[in-house]
Amino acid sequence: MSLLFKNLRIHQIFGANTDVGKTILTTALVRASATLKNEVFYLKPISTGAIQDADDEHVMRHSSTFKDRIHAHCLYRFHVPVSPHLAAQLAAGDESQKIVSDNTFINSISSYVQRCASSANGPAHMYVETAGGVHSPTLSGVTQLDCYRPLFLPTILIGDSRLGGISATISAYESLLLRGYIVDAILLFREDYYRNSEFLTPYFAERGIKVTAIDAPPPKASDASENFASTERYYESLDILPTVLDLNTRHTQRLAELASMPRRSLDAFWWPFVQHGLVKGEKDVTVIDSASSDFFSVYDAQTPPEISSLKPQLDGSASWWTQAFGHAHPALTLAAARASGRYGHVMFPQATHAPALQLAERLLDGPGKGWASRVFFSDDGSTGMEIALKMALRAFSVREGLGGKERKNLGVLGLKGSYHGDTIGAMDACAEEGVYTCEWHNAKGYWLDPPTISIQQGRPVITLPPALATSEALFEPAESDSESWVYDVTGRMGTPLAEIYHGYISRTLEGLKSARGVPRLAALVLEPLVMGAGGMIFVDPLFQRVLVDVVRERDPASPDTPGSWRGLPVIYDEVFVGLYRLGMQSTIPLLGAAPDISVNAKILTGGLVPLAATLASDSIFRAFYSTEKAEALLHGHSYTAHALGCEVANETMSLIEKEARSEAWLAAQARWEAPSTPSSVWSFWDPDFVRAVSHLDTVAEVMALGTVLSIKVKDSQGGYVSHSAQTLLHSIKECSDGSLPSEAPQFSVHFRTLGNVAYFMTSLNTAPETIRLLENKIWNALGTDTSNKT
């Protein structure tokens, strides 16, 4: 949605307050631009009050000398002289009027700007003047700063020259800054008594912004013709051309910077998870100029001058699974600023601060409710898992009375395809066969090949590994038309398949006691329901529940103290799946078995800042409890319990609580016929779409839970190194691929694949209409006419 043209330099005019002279100074800018023989466009998106007092009318009245070059327009005009949101409400009282949504409003501005760019004869300038102050409401009631943010137009701030204007101007600037706006210039009237410009000029010079003080206009004359003449003389006396030239320079510099970034990036970066030998050149580098909601704004150097060089690109993987409420959410940004201003970063050992304490208590009352007693904070999911492993191995060693070399030869029990992060310890908790490896990787443990769940040919299917596939009848659940049946773990306990799982796991664990090359198992480590990085592997939850039960049954010597871990300490890696990524706060209610340790990250801070939390039961905590310092958990990070991260996490959890009651969530749950219970399964993706895709000849299987959609492409090679999914879905990287209706917003999709598995992920508040458009693009890319998707 962001707009940046080579032939049209655009600036948006914000006011530090109402009645600070926005229209007067904007008119001066329009006239100065016209003196350069540029075509000039002036847009007033919203106007309230009498037509003769309208700002666009004022611009045209005082541009008669350049009338062949200046075009003024207003999109939404209301005749009652009140705030735009009130004017819209009053107009909506007439049945012929409806309050315009923010999306419609922004799309109207975008369309008009693009028409101006297309019609411009050569280089042109454009000024978009807002109404009132930076936080004055728009038609919907949302403040202007938030409403206009998707357009991301560079800004001119009109400062306040009156009493209190220094504070108002700086506050307005900081409000713009907190939302990421680029402030190119500050203009205000020169005032000889308060002399605000004298203070503001050096203040903003330190911040790289030039302040220009302009003589104030003469008092309004009672006679209309006399007033017009004096105002014309005023405009003719102003020398604002240097400001216009500086704006031109900044526009040119921004374009040059964007154009240079691909080459400079190729020369500077070592990207994660990228084989640089496959990067063909600058065209393979995605230049992200800004991000808002679910969209990146990416630079395209190949666009002609009259087309915006910035294109909307849907963040189809929720930025590596972190986004909860889209990019640049103002509430999260303000939370970070709030904590930064209050704390910065403070050391945490044997200390406390409100954001950390509040977050710990929320986590213990949320995903840790009923089983966890402590929260250990760290930086990210991988380090959170390192801490979980340290906790589990120590707890096992203490209970078993191990010491010395015995403690060094411990391993974990897990599932093939699991992944717990890229730090060495987390890597060692995964099987050697994965591609996430390095020279020091030393897989320590044993990994079972799990049964998986997928939708094939419109029906949920349980695929058993070779060691378990003893009967064709076991490949499909008895109620094969119901995805919810597969996830009804309690209802499936005691079934023949559960007994087979139990026997298989018990025999395997018994055999491991005498197996060579397998270390002593000291913990069970699981990614509940979905193993993400391993290829979006949807594991049969019944198998995971039975696995937990068998592990805990196999230790009759464990104490009977309520809450004590039994068999092996059980770790749930909920870094990816937790906090509603799969439509549920935690996988624990669905599995019906609580862990002894769990880890949350990713969505915890809404994708704004890194933070992880490792939750532990009291029995795990007690393994470290002593009067000896050496027996403590001697693990920590410089940014442990980072106040910014904790405050943002608290805000994220508050937003999630509100979103969980939203109409969009309730409608999605209704489509999947899922009651709103902690263990219900549902998805934001349309069930008819998911089942239809599963019938396609190019598709092996599909799965959807919560925000996640996974499509496995048929490929004889398969595996992580395959390019089949990337190749098949390549067309969705194009902005206009013919898959969307002509009236729908056009966008490309940024997505990543795991070999022959393509996955897509929404935020928790992605608009349903955006998801439907993305479904159309995916459907079209898979090579089938959309008319067959029923």
TrEMBL record:
Cross-referenced Gene3D superfamilies: P-loop containing nucleotide triphosphate hydrolases, Type I PLP-dependent aspartate aminotransferase-like (Major domain)
Primary site of residence: mitochondrion
Spans through the membrane: none
InterPro entries: Aminotrans_3 (IPR005814), Aminotrans_3_PPA_site (IPR049704), P-loop_NTPase (IPR027417), PyrdxlP-dep_Trfase (IPR015424), PyrdxlP-dep_Trfase_major (IPR015421)
GO molecular function terms listed in the Swiss-Prot or TrEMBL record: adenosylmethionine-8-amino-7-oxononanoate transaminase activity; dethiobiotin synthase activity; pyridoxal phosphate binding
Cellular component terms (Gene Ontology): mitochondrion
GO biological process, alphabetically ordered: biotin biosynthetic process
SUPFAM superfamilies attached to this UniProt entry: P-loop containing nucleoside triphosphate hydrolases, PLP-dependent transferases
Keywords: Aminotransferase, Transferase
Cellular compartment(s): Mitochondrion
Pfam families: AAA_26, Aminotran_3
The protein's name: PLP-dependent transferase
